[in-house]
Each structure stands twice: as structure tokens, then as C-alpha cells.
Design a protein that fits this description.
Chain lengths: 206, 447, 202
């Protein structure tokens, strides 16, 4: 585990390969309920998207918290990799309409609308558009700028799992499953008794 | 076997005010009854307490055998029914006030263990008083039961809701010796037994004394109500012994292998001898010797090659084992006064006879409610604290379909298809008042 | 699609799903079984991420919970905390001993008058608050003693104090909801051993 705090391009704080992002938005007066509904949709998209894609974005967790009696919104996430590819990938996985969906209920709405217009309109950034990927990559810089403008870096960020990436852990999971399969196979008993396998078996002893 | 520790030091606790159950060991064999009462009239409830109070045994000379002793505990609805003033009621912990049934989610009492399946009177809010008699002979038991029953008959306005007899030789219905691993309580005057380690601070078990934090735990007010009192968690289980035996038969070919697999689940052999001291076969000489029975640690067995990480006794008291989660095991100790009811089942019986039998889990501690809630969610119904993910306690958890138990080894063995061997029939949170608190409770509250 | 490849697709589904399908529609055409199975498998995926509550306040996805709290700081509290974080170079390794902690951050808000504390952790925090109180009381009191009204880790009010400033997340997503810190640590170790085993083998 390394815990050196370094500012990365997204102004967040990192620990090992993991970074944090905490951005604060004002909630548009009267839009609290619509915002809540949009956030539910946003997380639903994440939940139903292909895990392989989510892993690629490096996203570990994401939370939206409405506070100050419905006047403010916190978006806090933890992610691997650098800020630039992270947001680009996030845009590719979730699609701009789902970012727009909740951001339009914040005080950044005008800026978001302007960003969409400059990026060729919401349809150009929809996942169904034939040039979606090119458009989204081009548009991501604008979205980054907006979010950065609302970001407050953490004074300290700590992540005990900061030294490993999820890809490594997923690999470990697959390895563990395969290994269990071998252990559960009675036919493997004889082969497993070979002394060369002892360190492996000791580790898997429980 | 003589389960009594000797009193070798001058006690610093107010033993003559503390109830016997805190320090007095269950005899072997033992006989007894758990009775549950409802108070329908506050004044008459207080009258009953007045009449019962001389029968409640104190912990004074807890080391000397007595033919029978009686304990009394009161649930939160019981305190309300007795007319305890609001300011006192509010001083009890929130989870105690909510009651066990309301805490089902935290306790992981779901599915077949959920309160809607419980036996009467558990979870109804009507279980106000619990009276338990423990005796070393049938006659002493009957005499003590008749004693409190006479008082009950004299007092209308108090209803006997249930009356459960128990008794065993010291071996539970599964055929395993139990009830002998108890924490050493500082200030009790008890001799230290091999394996005890540093005695636990008295405030962990009796309110009003320094706890492991250095300070006394918060206690109910006024002081006369809280001091020298403690909490009791009662959980009644039905035991599926035939299913347990069948599980051993299905996964082990010979009687020796069945014995070993059973010991791997429990952490001890049938005699009580721990795997830690006798890893390959039962050793009744250890099981019969109170100086050896608990004289072991787990730090030399980090992978559970002797005692599986998930074995019942290792889960319930991890001793010095390194856990995956920051935990102070010293604040999770409980005094166990559990009892068995119904006939034991021989180990070769694999067909259920449908009879009622099981265990009454009884835990006493100044933080018993917190501790049992912790045990249920962290150590019984999860394996994460020892890196076993979702594996659960092999004896008292509620197992999901397709659950397994890991017997560490080279290679480890995954025993598939482990079921729930105990189903919860109900339970309650009780407060066990001191003798002076019983006197205080039996007086009309001044308003 | 051929019968054989349908059968392959069915076999490719998780065993639990196949069992469920077989238990009910064992006799159905394999095409139907695949359809139903894929539907159920998808649901399992959704169920794995299902959000429940983490104790009194906060959301939990699978095994991983979130705790977010914004608390008022004592005058000078932010400065004292900053100094402390600088001293330890941001390394709150003591907190790593907790063993359930995925991550935690402290963010100063509103001109250093408020503190945002956001963490992700396994299971629930309040069963372990008593362990923090006896195992790492100095750490807890040093960090949170800068918060206005902190009652001290030993106080019976400490749970209520935290809960009162806790803000439930509206949306909570965890990429690997069933991976606990203890689980990840074990996998890391397994991977390392396999690698060294393979190295020695060659």
C-alpha cells in the first residue's frame, strides 16, 4: 500500500492506483424530486451495464448524496486509473444522456446544455448514434472541465486496496474458482498429493 | 466432572447482591425449568416480586454446591408492566427496549428462524418475567419449582405462559459435552484455570464495575436498579440431531471418520476434548479434566489445520486467533448458562423421530444484547471475519441452500450440502436485576 | 440455432440458475430453458447489486456499505487535521487494520468549517464501534475530536452522534459488491503464491 498524496489531473487525491473524486453541485430550486429520480436511473444504468465495461472504466464505487435540505448534491466516486481516461470511459459506458439526466437538475444545467450543444446535441452522444464513440471522446473534455470546476479534493484519501487493480483481483477470483474446481474433483486427489503442490495447497488450506 | 472453580481470592464484587446465575456453574447432571410469566397488573406484579425475592439466590459463596438455585429476569415489556417510571425505562439500551423479535434483521433471524414462526409466548410482548431453576437432583428441582409455583398461586394478575423443563448429564442432545468454557471474571475471587489468560474486567459481566474500556458501561438508572445487575439473552432452539448424524454419515465412511468430521464442525470431540489438544481422536481423559479442557490457544494454528477457522467453538471464542477484522475478542465474551431439553439421540440414528429436543442458549453479560447481536451477524452468519466469505457457523446458523463447510487441510476439504442443525423457536432479551433492584422494583414507584 | 449450441448455451449458465430452471421446467424444450435461464441469470446479476440498508442510515450494495457524514468542525479543527494528515503523509495505515475498510476520505467544506467524511466498508459499522473504542480509541478521538460536540469514542452517545450527521446516499453503486476486503486480501495472496509456484516450476 502506498499512500502518497498526489494531485492528478482531476485535482482529486489518490492512494496507490486509486483516486477519489468529490464534486459538489447546487440543486436547482424545486428540482429535488426529479433529481432523485434521475439519480436512480443513473445508478440503474451502472448496475445493468456489462461488468467487463465497468471494470474497464476503473470505477470502484459511486455515490450521490443530497444534503443541506435538498439544496446541494455531492457526487463522490472512487476509481482506478487516471482521471482523463476514467471520465472518457464513464461517458462511453453510461452515455451522455444519463449524465445530462441528473446534471440538468443542478445549478450547472445551463453549462451542461451549452456543452451538449457544442458537442453536436444529445442525440450525437447517445449510445445508439453511429458515431457515438468518436463524438463521446471528443465531448469528454468539456464534461471533465465542468465536473472539475465543482470538485473539492480530499484532504486525505486512504485505500487499503489501493495497490491492486480490480483486474488483478478478478484474475484472482477466477483463479480461486478454477482451483476450487480442481480441489472438489475426487479424481485429482492423487495428483494433488505430489509434494511440489504443497505450497499451493497450504495456501488454499482454508 | 466437577465444573466448579475454587474461590481462592477475596472477592471484590458485591456477591450477596448479584444473582447466582452470573457466577454459579451448572451442576452435572442438572435438572431445571424455565418459566415465563405475564404481569397483567402492576401492583400484583410487584407483590409477586416481593414474594419471590427471598427465593432468588445470590452469588455469595458461588463456589459451594447448593441443591437448587433460582434466577429471575425481566424483559422490557415486563418493566413497563411493573410500572417502572419512564425516566428509568428510557435509561435502558435501545436494542433491549426494542426486544429480540424487533431486532430479527440484525440478528439474522430470518426464514424459518423469523419471529412469525416462533413458539408462544416469544415475541408477543407478553413474556414479562423469566424464572429459571437449576438443580442438581430431581427432588431439589421439584421442591424449588413448587416453591415459586406456590407464590404464583397466591397472586392473581400474574399468568404463567410457559413452563419448559430441561435437564441433561452435561452432554447436549447431539451427544457433545457443553457448558464448561466460561470466562474468568476479575473480582469474583475465582482461581485462574489453565487457558484462562488475564481475567476479564468485571464490568463486562456486572453493571457498575470497570469494564474492558476502563470505565463502567452505561447502566440503567437509578443506580439501585442498574448496579450489580446484568443482561440475559435467551434463545430456544430445536435441534435436528438426526439430520446432523445423517450429514456425518453422508460425508464420512467409518465411525472414526464421522467422529472426526463431527469434531471439525464443533471444534471439540464428544467428550469435550478440544481438537487443539487432541487433533486425531477423542481423548476423554482431557474431556474429564477441567484443568486441561480449556488449556489451549489458536495462534499456533492460523490456517485451522487442527481446529477449522469455521468450527463452532472457534467462532464463538476465537481466543488469540488473528481475525481479518479489527475486533476486541475480550469484549465479546459471555457467561453461558445454556441448558438442554429432550432426549439425546444416539449417533447412529439418522431418522428424525419428530420429538421435541434442543438447546436453550442463555448468555449473560453487561453487554449481552450487543454481544449476541454481534455474534449473530458477524461470527455466526458470516465467515468474513476469518476470510471464509459467506461460510457460516456449522451448528447454530441458518444455512442457505448449497452451503458448505471447509475442513482445512492439504488439500482442504469442502463438505457440501451442510444444513441448519438448529432452528430458532424464539427468544427474548432480559435484564437480570440485583437483589436490591428486585426489592426496589417491588416497591410502589414514587411519582 | 442448433440443438447442440442451445444446449451449450444452457450449460454456460450459472449452476444455480440451471438448477432453478431444471427444477421447474426440466421437460421443456431447451430453447425455452435457455431463454428463461438467461432471464434469471440476468436477474441474479441485478440481485447481486441489489441495494439494501446498512444499519440505521446508509446504503449497502452486496456486502459493501457507504457512510457519508458532514460534520461541523471546531475552530481550528481543519488546521489540526491537515497537520496530522501531513505528519503521517496521508497514511492512515492504522485504519487499514480495521479490515473492513475499502476506502475513506476527509474533505473540508465551506471555508474549513465543515468536514465531509465518506467511506466504503464491508457489512455494518455499528457492531464494531465498541471494538474501535477499546482497540483504536486514540485514533478515533484524535480524528473526530476536531468535530464540534464529539462525545468521545467511549461515550454511549457516540453511535447516535454519528448517525445524526449521516447523510443517506440517494444512489450507491459498487462495481464488485460481493468482494470484501478480507476476500480481496486472500485472492491477492493466492495470486502471489500461484505466480511464485509457476516461477519455481519453470
Amino acid at each position: 500500500m502506498t499512500s502518497t498524496i498526489e494531485k492528478n489531473s482531476g485535482k482529486g487525491t489518490s492512494d496507490g492506483v486509486v483516486s477519489e473524486l468529490a464534486a459538489f453541485f447546487g440543486v436547482k430550486p424545486g428540482h429535488e424530486e426529479q433529481l432523485r429520480a434521475a439519480l436512480d436511473r443513473f445508478v440503474e444504468v451502472l448496475r445493468t451495464s456489462d461488468p467487463a465495461e465497468t471494470i474497464r472504466t476503473g470505477l470502484r464505487d459511486s455515490r450521490h448524496v443530497i444534503f443541506d435540505e435538498g439544496r446541494q448534491l455531492l457526487w463522490a466516486t472512487t476509481f482506478e486509473t487516471e482521471w482523463d481516461p476514467y471520465l472518457e470511459d464513464a461517458l462511453l459506458v453510461v452515455g451522455a444522456p444519463h449524465f445530462f439526466d441528473w446534471m440538468q437538475h443542478t445549478t450547472e444545467a445551463d453549462v451542461i446544455v451549452q456543452w451538449l450543444e457544442e458537442s453536436g446535441g444529445i442525440d450525437a452522444l447517445d449510445k445508439d448514434h453511429p458515431d457515438f464513440e468518436t463524438n463521446a471522446r471528443r465531448a469528454s473534455a468539456g464534461l471533465k472541465k465542468i465536473i472539475q470546476s465543482r470538485q473539492t479534493p480530499a484532504a486525505v484519501y486512504f485505500n487499503p486496496l489501493g495497490a491492486v487493480t480490480m483486474t488483478q483481483i478478478i484474475k484472482g477470483q477466477l483463479l480461486d474458482q478454477a482451483f476450487q474446481q480442481v480441489l472438489d474433483n475426487p479424481a485429482a486427489e492423487e495428483a494433488l498429493s505430489h509434494p511440489a503442490l504443497k505450497p499451493l495447497l497450504d495456501l488454499a488450506s482454508s | 466432572m466437577d465444573l466448579f472453580r475454587r474461590l481462592t481470592r477475596r472477592p471484590t464484587l458485591e456477591l450477596d447482591d448479584i444473582q447466582a446465575a452470573v457466577l454459579r456453574s451448572r451442576p452435572e447432571p442438572y435438572y431445571g425449568t424455565h418459566a415465563i410469566l405475564e404481569i397483567t397488573d402492576a401492583a400484583l406484579g410487584r407483590e409477586l416480586l416481593r414474594r419471590l425475592s427471598p427465593r432468588i439466590t445470590s452469588a455469595a459463596r458461588w463456589d459451594e454446591p447448593v441443591p437448587a438455585w433460582t434466577m429471575l429476569a425481566i424483559s422490557y415489556p415486563g418493566l413497563v408492566a411493573l410500572g417502572v417510571p419512564e425516566s428509568s425505562l428510557a435509561s435502558f439500551p435501545a436494542n433491549f427496549r426494542a426486544g429480540m423479535a424487533a431486532r430479527a434483521e440484525r440478528l439474522r433471524d430470518t426464514g424459518p428462524n423469523a419471529p412469525e414462526h416462533w413458539e408462544f409466548p416469544f415475541g408477543t410482548g407478553r413474556a414479562h418475567l423469566a424464572i429459571s431453576v437449576y438443580a442438581d437432583s430431581e427432588q431439589a428441582w421439584q421442591a424449588a419449582v413448587e416453591g415459586y409455583a406456590r407464590e404464583l398461586d397466591q397472586v392473581p394478575g400474574v399468568r404463567l405462559l410457559s413452563h419448559q423443563d430441561f435437564g441433561a448429564t452435561g452432554f447436549n442432545v447431539f451427544g457433545y459435552r457443553d457448558g464448561f468454557a466460561q470466562p474468568a471474571v476479575e473480582g469474583s475471587g475465582a482461581e485462574t484455570m489453565p487457558g484462562d489468560g488475564r481475567p476479564i474486567r468485571p464490568g463486562e459481566f456486572v453493571l457498575g464495575y470497570p469494564s474492558e474500556t476502563g470505565q463502567p458501561l452505561p447502566m440503567p438508572s437509578p443506580d439501585v436498579l442498574g448496579r450489580n445487575g446484568t443482561f440475559v439473552v435467551f434463545r430456544k432452539y430445536h435441534s435436528h440431531v438426526a439430520a446432523f448424524n445423517r450429514f456425518l454419515h453422508d460425508h464420512a465412511g467409518t465411525p472414526q471418520e464421522r467422529d472426526l468430521l463431527g469434531a471439525k464442525l464443533v471444534g471439540r470431540w464428544r467428550s469435550g476434548a478440544p481438537l487443539a489438544l487432541s487433533p486425531d481422536r477423542d481423548d476423554p481423559a482431557i474431556g474429564d479434566d477441567p484443568t486441561r479442557l480449556n488449556d489451549f490457544t489458536y495462534s499456533g494454528d492460523p490456517r485451522g489445520l487442527r481446529t477449522p477457522l469455521g468450527a463452532h467453538t472457534r467462532r464463538m471464542n476465537p481466543r488469540d486467533a488473528k481475525l481479518a477484522i479489527l475486533t476486541d475478542t475480550r469484549i465479546r465474551r459471555i457467561i453461558r448458562r445454556g441448558t438442554s431439553y429432550g432426549d439425546p439421540v444416539a449417533e447412529d440414528v439418522t431418522r428424525d423421530d419428530g420429538k421435541s429436543r434442543g438447546l436453550d442458549f442463555i448468555a449473560i453479560s453487561a453487554r449481552a444484547v450487543d454481544t449476541v447481536e454481534f455474534l449473530q451477524s458477524e461470527w455466526v452468519n458470516s465467515g468474513n471475519f476469518v476470510g471464509l466469505d459467506k461460510e457460516k457457523d456449522p451448528l447454530i446458523s441458518r444455512q442457505d441452500d448449497g452451503a458448505r463447510f471447509t475442513v482445512p487441510g492439504t488439500p482442504p476439504r469442502r463438505v457440501q450440502g451442510i444444513q441448519s442443525f438448529n432452528t430458532l423457536l424464539g427468544g427474548e432479551y432480559f435484564f437480570m436485576p440485583s437483589l436490591s433492584a428486585i426489592a426496589w422494583l417491588s416497591r410502589e414507584p414514587s411519582t | 440455432m442448433s440443438q447442440q449450441s442451445l444446449e451449450q448455451r444452457f450449460q454456460g449458465l450459472p449452476a444455480t440458475v440451471r438448477q432453478k430452471v431444471d427444477a421447474v421446467i426440466d421437460d421443456a424444450k431447451v430453447a425455452l430453458k435457455v431463454r428463461v435461464g438467461e432471464l434469471l441469470a440476468d436477474k441474479d446479476e441485478v440481485a447481486e447489486h441489489a441495494v439494501t440498508t446498512a444499519g440505521r442510515v446508509g446504503a449497502k450494495s452486496g456486502e459493501v456499505s457507504e457512510l457519508t457524514a458532514i460534520m461541523p468542525l471546531k475552530p481550528g479543527g481543519a488546521e489540526r487535521l491537515r497537520k496530522f494528515f501531513k505528519l503521517v503523509d496521508g497514511n492512515l495505515a492504522g485504519a487499514g487494520d480495521v479490515g473492513t475498510l475499502h476506502n475513506m476520505r476527509f474533505v473540508f467544506l465551506d471555508g474549513d468549517t465543515k468536514l465531509l467524511f465518506a467511506t466504503a466498508y464491508d457489512g455494518e459499522w455499528d457492531p464494531y464501534i465498541d471494538d474501535f473504542a477499546t482497540k483504536i480509541p486514540e485514533m478515533m478521538d484524535h480524528l473526530f475530536g476536531n468535530v464540534e460536540g464529539w462525545p468521545g469514542i467511549h461515550s454511549p452517545e457516540v453511535k447516535d452522534f454519528i448517525v445524526q450527521y449521516q447523510l443517506p446516499a440517494e444512489a450507491w453503486f459498487v462495481a464488485h459488491p460481493n468482494l470484501t476486503v478480507a476476500g480481496a486480501t486472500r485472492l491477492k495472496r493466492l495470486d502471489r503464491t500461484v505466480q511464485s509456484f509457476l516461477t519455481e516450476l519453470n
